[in-house]
TrEMBL record:
Keyword Hydrolase on entry: yes
Protein name: Alpha/beta hydrolase
InterPro entries with a match to the protein in the record: AB_hydrolase_fold, KANL3/Tex30_Abhydrolase, NSL3/Tex30
Domain KANL3/Tex30 alpha/beta hydrolase-like per the UniProt entry, residue ranges: 27-169
Source domain of life: Bacteria
Key word Transit peptide present: no
Lineage: Bacteria, Bacillati, Actinomycetota, Actinomycetes, Streptosporangiales
Length: 217
């Protein structure tokens, strides 16, 4: 799924699985969690939603994962590498709107770098609000400080916590889902589809079901 290409960064090579389309409406760049990969079920569901709306999709394996490491290390270096990858991808797709996102740690990266990358929005899957059992170690500032509108999709049983409806433009909470969001991946895609539609052509994906949201602003 997707043509894989290596991308050089200052912190090691990354890899992107790119699904290109003719005359894309937007570019969606997604990435994995700290111990996962780009074939996670929720990422694939969002990929399908984007392709159905005429978007191009790049699923990025970050340098630390490509090197076989389970932890991203320095957030500064991780963000630098991410911005270099996104810049290379944007040169390929030119002036289409950029939406970036990811799951868990990848959602944090997408939020932290959204403004610098020139993104128009962020899709944050399983945003890890705090370490399990440590609500005082909140990461809410990363979410609130994205500088662009953020869609959060979390499970109501996520031990990493669930962002409040005031923390993002929209928060969708899926019943029965934990941090991996793999109980019903199609529901994740349905949650992302209306959000992505705003950057699609006017006739794209007409008639698709809209998810029930818990709130937003």
């Amino acid at each position: 799924m997707g043509r894989r290409t290596k991308l050089v960064t200052a912190h090691g090579p990354a890899e992107a699985a790119v699904d290109a389309v003719d005359d894309p409406a937007f570019l969606l760049v997604l990435t994995h969690g700290s111990n996962g990969g780009v074939d996670a079920a929720d990422l694939l569901a969002v990929r399908e939603a984007a392709l159905g709306l005429g978007g191009a999709v790049a699923r990025v394996t970050q340098p630390f994962r490509l090197a076989g490491r389970r932890a991203p290390g320095s957030a500064v270096k991780q963000d630098e590498a991410w911005l270099q990858v996104v810049a290379k991808l944007r040169r390929r797709f030119r002036d289409v709107p950029l939406v970036q996102g990811g799951r868990s740690n990848g959602a944090r990266v997408a939020c932290r770098t959204a403004s610098a990358a020139g993104a128009v929005g962020v899709v944050a899957l399983a945003f890890p609000l705090h370490p399990p059992g440590r609500p005082e170690k909140t990461r809410v500032d990363e979410l609130r400080g994205a500088g662009v509108e953020v869609l959060v999709v979390n499970g109501d049983r996520d031990p990493f916590g669930v962002p409040d409806t005031a923390d993002a433009a929209e928060v969708v909470v899926l019943a029965g889902e934990r941090h991996d969001l793999n109980r019903d991946p199609a529901a994740v895609g349905r949650a992302a589809e209306p959000w992505l539609r705003r950057w699609a052509g006017p006739a794209a994906g007409l008639g698709a079901a809209r998810p029930v949201r818990t709130g937003g602003r």
